[in-house]
Structures are given as structure tokens and as C-alpha cells.
Amino acid sequence: MEKLSVSVNQTLKLGKRIAAHLVGGEVILLYGNLGAGKTVLAKGIAQGLGIKKNDVVSPTFVLLRVYQGKHLLQHFDFYRISSPEDIFALGYQEYLYSDAVTVIEWPERLKFLLPKEFLKIKLIAKAKNKRSFKFLAKGFRYKKLLERINENTGN
Question: In the beta sheet, which residues pair with residue 31?
């Protein structure tokens, strides 16, 4: 599935639509270059969970920020992680396999530590404000989630 956005507001709306289908325990992986819109999408997901978007900031320097909303939101940013071993000290498994919604920016840094099932969203900056979002569901639960998101957002 692929979606397009031509503004920050559209990206926030997409995040809110994704959040409308979350029940807790989901892992959402956000792939994309610097400036692709990963944090903006995370803010939209947070907003959809009842968290003020202005409270959500990139956790680049602290690796993790936790927010309370309809569901607990764990927002990771692994940009500054140099190897998967650096993540062991975080007790990452307790986070990835919890009842919270987990959003991870720069998940490629996890390598072999990625969970077996997840929703992957690849963000590609096409122009100044134009973004492409390519969705991939890994696992039955996430395929069903993706179907619900697609029904809700249309083409």
C-alpha cells in the first residue's frame, strides 16, 4: 500500500488515521532519510492517541520518550545507535513486547533485533512538502491492521 502527502497537515492526519486502528502492543517501524517526515508521522500517531502533538519531540538524543494517551506510546529514535549491541542495555525486549504502541525511527539500526511482526512504513521525500508512504505488514495481525488503515484512508 502506498499513500501520498503534500503537507505536514496531511502527514499528521495520516498518523491520526493509523492511530485510530491501534489497540496496543503494536510495533511501527519508520524508515526514511533525514527530513523524510518520520517525526511528523509519529506526532500524528500520538495525536490520534490523544497526546498533544506539540508534546512529542524527536527522541534522538535520549533514544526514547514515553507518552500517556489512549494507549502508552513509546517513541524510539535509534539514529545515534552505532550497533545493535548498544540497544541491549535499554532492555529493548520489555518495550517491544509490551502492551504499549511502539514507534521506532531508524529501525534499521536494530538489525537482527527487529521483532518478527511489525508494520513498516517507508517515507520518501519527493519534493519540498511531498512525501510518499509505503506500507508493509509483516505478520497476520499487521496485515489486518493495514487492511483497516487502507479502508479508512482510501486511495
Answer: 122
